[in-house]
Automatic annotation (TrEMBL):
PANTHER family: G/T AND G/U MISMATCH-SPECIFIC DNA GLYCOSYLASE, G_T MISMATCH-SPECIFIC THYMINE DNA GLYCOSYLASE. It is an enzyme of class 3 (hydrolase). This is Mismatch-specific DNA-glycosylase. Keywords: DNA damage, DNA repair, Glycosidase, Hydrolase. The keyword DNA damage applies. It comes from Paenibacillus wenxiniae. InterPro entries: MUG/TDG, Uracil-DNA_glycosylase-like, Uracil-DNA_glycosylase-like_sf. Residues 6-152 form the Uracil-DNA glycosylase-like domain. It comes from the Bacteria. GO terms for molecular function: hydrolase activity, acting on glycosyl bonds.
Length: 173
């Protein structure tokens, strides 16, 4: 199954970085297309998008300053199907993409994505104090997979923090 296309351009406000496409995403050619994935709902409910977008509109988010890529481009049933050498190759490619496109914020959709990228054993939610790519804010957010056991409202709150930071808003909570 071919990789789905990245949505990249210079000076994005946020580049969302996932593990890899699901089989459903690979079939339809769009990011976060698995119906059990809550990504689009999370973006909307956190205020990152003005309306609920759908996977086939992923390219439209470039107009909002949002892009998409993955650490591994091959679609799989799950992350357990990703080979160690794919992570190693993907890490190099992802670092090159981030250095080339210079997004303001690289948002890693899942702690595991960030730990594979940074080669650190752990990472807190939110902004990372020592970014891998200097000059790019690295933000770790929960995975949007329906398999994640964290309450959806807690996930949305972390994405709301991303929105507040990305938009230069004051947190009045």
């Amino acid at each position: 199954m071919p990789a789905i296309p990245d949505h990249l351009q210079q000076q994005l406000n946020i580049l969302f970085v996932g593990f890899n496409p699901s089989l459903r995403s690979g079939e339809v050619g769009h990011h976060y297309a698995n119906p059990r994935n809550r990504f689009w709902n999370i973006l909307y409910r956190s205020g990152l998008t003005p309306r609920l977008y759908h996977p086939d509109e992923d390219g439209d988010l470039l107009e909002l300053g949002y892009g998409f890529t993955n650490i591994v481009s091959r679609p799989t049933r799950g992350i357990d199907d990703i080979l160690p050498e794919e992570y190693a190759e993907g890490r190099v490619e992802l670092r090159e993409k981030i250095a080339q496109y210079r997004p303001r914020i690289a948002c890693f959709v899942g702690k595991g994505v960030y730990t594979k990228y940074s080669q650190r054993s752990q990472a807190p939610w939110g902004i990372q104090s020592e970014p891998v790519t200097e000059g790019v804010v690295e933000f770790v957010a929960p995975s949007s997979s329906g398999l994640v056991r964290m309450p959806l409202d807690d996930i949305i709150d972390i994405y709301r923090e991303l929105r507040i930071y990305a938009n230069g808003e004051q947190d009045n909570d």
